[in-house]
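Reviewers of the previous submission asked for a worked example of the structure-prediction workflow described in the proposal, so we include one complete record here. The input consisted solely of the amino acid sequence. No template or homolog information was supplied to the procedure at any stage.
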Amino acid sequence: MTMRAASSSGRARARLVGFAALALALLASGCGAKVGDLSGKVLQKDGKPLPGGVITFYPESGGNPVSTIILPDGNYEIKGVRAGTAKIAVTNDSLKPGEKDNPIMKKLFQPPKEALAKMKEEGGQLAINTAEKLKGKYVPLPRTLTRPETSGLTAEVQGGPQQLDVHLPK
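From that input alone, the workflow returned the following structure tokens.
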């Protein structure tokens, strides 16, 4: 074997190792992370569907929270939730009488354009939950359900489509 062939072989091996290291770094940084597309019902403590609101999934492994509207029949559909354990928050405060015109609630459901662009870039979904789109009937919920740290609600999100009913605590 000549010296030239040995150095050429060594460079090829170094490039291969470099590409492998890059691929591992990308995987570790979250690129290519699996996401789940969830659908199901949000059920009150009495087993009846929650008649409207917003449900948000907060991935424990990092990444952006993903929200969507709960329809008046209790159903929801959401795409792009990072696979793994997610904490859940549920609210329907914007259904309170008079809240549809509350500027604070409108701002909550109309995130800045920069946030929307970042969500799209990262492959997540953020429902444009304007107060006008949110329909249903207000049902008082415990304040603890509105925060992922206090709701006590979690889900194991798998990659791909998944049926997931969310049972609000008693």
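The chain has two domains: 1-32, 35-164. We consider this example representative of the routine output the project will generate in years two and three.
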